[in-house]
Amino acid sequence: TFPVKLIVDTGAGHALALYNGTHPLIHLPDTVIRSILGRGLNGTIEGYYGRIKSFTLGKFQINDIITSFPDSSEVGGTFISNGRNGNLGGEILNGMSELGNRLSEIKGKK
Length: 110
What we know:
Number of strands: 6
Strand order of the largest sheet: 1-6-2-5-4-3
Distance between the termini: 34 Å
Order of helices and strands: EEEEEHEHH
Number of helices: 3
């Protein structure tokens, strides 16, 4: 278990994306599938899908979560320079109504 810095991406369809090389303990799982992960502002995002043992956010824990690992060339320098290790996508957020309600409150306070 180790802490990571994630950006919350409510528009992302995936559950979790981790960026290789941004933390000594973030690496590809033993079994991965090479794939097109999606589309971004700069075009197609390629990388790998694999399962990580578990992910904990507050009181929520998800085991064997499918995680995407974008190719390092696909990850913008801004994310890495800000110390981010990945992003938290809509697949997890949709299942966490308490977190979703809190994000809605924050969004409404603009």
